[in-house]
Amino acid sequence: MTTDAEARFDELIAADSRIEPRDWMPDAYRKTLIRQISQHAHSEIIGMQPEGNWITRAPSLKRKAILMAKVQDEAGHGLYLYSAAQTLGITRDEMTEQLITGRAKYSSIFNYPAPTWADMGAIGWLVDGAAICNQVPLCRASYGPYGRAMVRICKEESFHQRQGFEILLTLMQGTPAQREMAQDAVNRWYWPSLMMFGPPDDQSPNSAQSTAWKIKRFSNDELRQRFLGMLVPQAEILGITLPDENLRWNDETGQYDMSEIDWTEFFEVLAGRGPMNTERVRARREAHENGEWVREAAAAYARKQAAKAVAA
Ligand SMILES: [Fe+2]
Ligand SMILES: [Fe+2]
């Protein structure tokens, strides 16, 4: 039997209205959102590492300032998303605990190393580019706090994608060694960035329910195709080769043909066996432990202020 609360929820979803924290929602909807938003938040925070690693080595003051701003944006994205997840009843401490004990999942893309400066270009162009394709439709996600966080995040992601493109463009107009470095970075990040959209539609068990709840608006394969539509003309401008000899537009299907993605690699990295998984979680745990005195000081200050307010 459908209760009034359930009927109201279904009505809001059908009308493309937003579900807000005060509204009744099915448990499974809440759980799905907590999982998705917290994983998304963790990805933003872990995603600071491959680029944070290059801030001290950026080739000029200007590049350093831009990269620092970009990495700070990612920290901000993590914070909006943790706050959005908290409105669903999970605490920040619980989420942090899941991350630093290695129990939480985050985007497998951040478990790859960034050995050269050109990786900063490839990450911005490909990883932030894929993030935009994934996130623009999430601005209309049915859960209000998630959709609203996404609007601001997307604006910043588009700056990130352009700064990556511009790094690659500069390298591609440079010496043969610089061009080679740019091409090598794109070769390494291209396939993992395509994996960011998740498994093919016929192997994506949770997609149908998320689509029915209007959290997800396009399928994994549709988003992957959109991403290719963005990359192909930009690769041409860059003079960079996308490392797939089977990649071409197919007039009949109205889609890009491409080689098979190596899903074994994807599932291995997701299961914690990627090149950098252990290091990423270790660095996060260490940062959390080293920040303990800051949290203590902030809490002590808050107590002092509260006591003063009571006394006044
Ligand atoms: Fe981000
Ligand atoms: Fe970004």
UniProtKB/TrEMBL annotation:
Give the originating organism.
Microbacterium aoyamense
Per the UniProt record, one Pfam family is PaaA_PaaC
Name the chain's protein: 1,2-phenylacetyl-CoA epoxidase subunit A
The record's annotation in SUPFAM superfamilies points to: Ferritin-like
Name the InterPro entries on file: Aromatic_CoA_ox/epox, Ferritin-like, Ferritin-like_SF, PaaA, PaaA_PaaC
Domain of life, per UniProt, equals: Bacteria
Record gene name: paaA
